[in-house]
Specification:
With about 270 residues, this protein is α+β, with helices and mostly antiparallel strands. Helices cover about 60% and strands about 15% of the residues. Strands 1-2-5-4-3 form a 5-stranded mixed sheet. It has 9 helices and 5 strands, in the order αβααβαβββααααα. The mean pLDDT is about 90. Pathway: Purine metabolism; ppGpp biosynthesis; ppGpp from GTP: step 1/2.
Amino acid sequence: MEIQLWREILNPYELAVKEVMTKFNHLIKEHQDRGLYCPIEQVEGRVKTISSILDKCQKKKIDLEDIEEKIYDLAGIRIICQFVEDIDKVVEIIRGRKDMEIKQERDYIREMKSSGYRSYHIILYYTVDTLDGPKRLQMEVQIRTMAMNFWATVEHSLQYKYKRNIPDHIKERLLGAADAIITLDNEMSTVRSEIMDAQISFRIQANIVADILNNIQNLYRVANKREILKIQDEFYRIYAMNDIDQLERFDRQLDLIAEGYRAQSLPTEE
């Protein structure tokens, strides 16, 4: 196949990966802006390389003309979660989306592969708008915890090194590591609520501080320097107390001060 034809085939998949990553990252931002815990920690994406496609065609005996139909992971998205419980929440989010149509689901978490691999796979249809019009294509989404992702990344590297013929003694080590990953995920689940509360509190405080600093910056344009310095000193004093309630009260007071200056700057009607 000519290089130009490869580009024509893979370009829509590159667009799909960019769009889907943007949508999931925006979902993370929406949760953060509202001071909510997001089940998605990180989003990664890739389009299969030509060499990987050729290897898969050779292994699976797939004709190059059939790759878009028979290779469902030309485009791949990986969603990393903090906790096992978050994975089901992400699956529900995807099931509820109108722009993604699920073709198949594979649960390798409840039914772990013999190698020790654990992850939740969704094959879906996604439509992109191209120069030639809408194109409906397949995409694979993998959802796993950070611990599962660490194991899978190491195992993938070993598969590549040993050309998918990993020695038995290393397989045994990998299985032992997989059991340790299960234990780690289970242990982290026992303190999930405490970790979530801490992260939400941190995000709320970060949003309040950002709002306060934005107000102070705007006040530099309209208030005198002495008043600004007093406000800054008060902010530093309250921030050092590490009390979100106090920060919220200061933020509301600062909003009123800023609103007063904005009202003064409005032209008066004659």
